[in-house]
Amino acid sequence: MISEQRMASPALTTEEIYLERKLLKHVRDNVHGNIFLEPIFLKFVDTEQFQRLRDLKQLGLTHMVYPGAVHSRFEHSVGVYWLAGKAVDIIKRYQGLELGIEHSDVQTVKLAGLLHDIGHGPFSHTFERQFLPQLLSDPWSHEEMSVKMIDYMVDEHNIDMDPEILKKAKEMITASPDRPLQREKQFLYDIVANGRNGIDVDKFDYIVRDTRACGLGCSFHPDRLMETMQVVGDEICYRAKDYLTIYKLFATRADLHRTVYTHAKVKAIELMVVDALVKADPYLRLTSSIHEPSEFWKLDDSVLKTIETSSGKELKESRDLILRIRRRDIYQFCNEFSVPKDRLEHFKGITPQDIVCSQVTNGITLKEDDVAVCNVKIDLTRGKENPLERIKFFKEYGEKQEKFPIPEDRISHLLPGFYEDMIVRVYSKRPELVGVVSAAFENYQLKTFGRKAQVHETPEKKKRKM
């Protein structure tokens, strides 16, 4: 039983509830149902910077393969805001007094959820992880841009917000798995972007939202975890009997990566868009806007339409690539293979040069620009580690709780014993070279692994095409 002193602060009066509801903005979401936005958060939502998120598809170019995947970062951000508020409200309801949760803590978590993606670039992670690295040597992240964008929005729109809330919200956004933060009330920093174990409301929203948009089933239900979680030792912990529900979170995420986010045709289209953007950058100066929020907020998915409808000769190569995508003349998938487990630790990724250098003499000389390679890593968020081992559990509710991990040997033997895949996919940029590129790819595997490690043979009809 949960003691009475651990319940939340005194309830609002009927009049206060009426006034509060009167000021709320009601949004109907197709995943979470009714969402209510408070006036302070509407000051951010009703800006051109936040409204820009409507023009960023959550899954980038995935809608080219899954037509229903046209939901935006606007929907996702509002959804994460709602779940972040729900999560902190649940904790406050049962443990608010003992943890010292204040109204400002609730506002901070909600603000972090609302603005965690405000600095995202076009085409989901393609812009950040594939386009920019080809042109820039310094790393760039949408989390860092989100922090800059928040400061810009506050200054530009004269938003009156407690500086301490803004500071903590920005820290919550950048508390990624690679950059965990240690702060007072650390458990609050684990709600939106969990740097400790990867369980956060960002995943809760996009997993349910993305599976629904793509017409896929989802066996993971976040409500169960949220309603039963408890803070023990300044860390959000879960009931031991819910470990399979947590596993479903990571397994569903990995399945989305394999079947949706890194679908072979989705990656082919992404490769073409990246090539088009690289060729267009000297004229559109996309990379010159990535450090200044005042310019960056003007950049969204419509950049493809800008290229496609331009008449300038300088954009012809980019325009032709986008026209090929429209006409479904995309880079041809040749083959793929899964890197053997014993090679994963030192695997550095395959390049077009590796394929070209493995070419079998057949009268046609391949060039690097004829080949595109995609190295796809899929894991359960912790590489080769079992993510469940980083999560802390508790047995039953009570006054004196102890948190503990569940050792791997006590977890169901039906779960996988290996937690990481690296898939290499090779594409031919020209249909008539599919057979030649496929042969070079197979030869590379023989030289590197002593065998062909590919999942399936390239169909003969593709090799003979044109």
TrEMBL record:
GO terms for cellular component: nucleus. GO terms for biological process: dGTP catabolic process. Residues 73-207 form the HD domain. InterPro entries: dGTPase-like, HD/PDEase_dom, HD_domain. One of its GO terms (molecular function) is dGTPase activity. CDD domains: HDc (cd00077). This is HD domain-containing protein. It comes from Acacia crassicarpa (northern wattle).
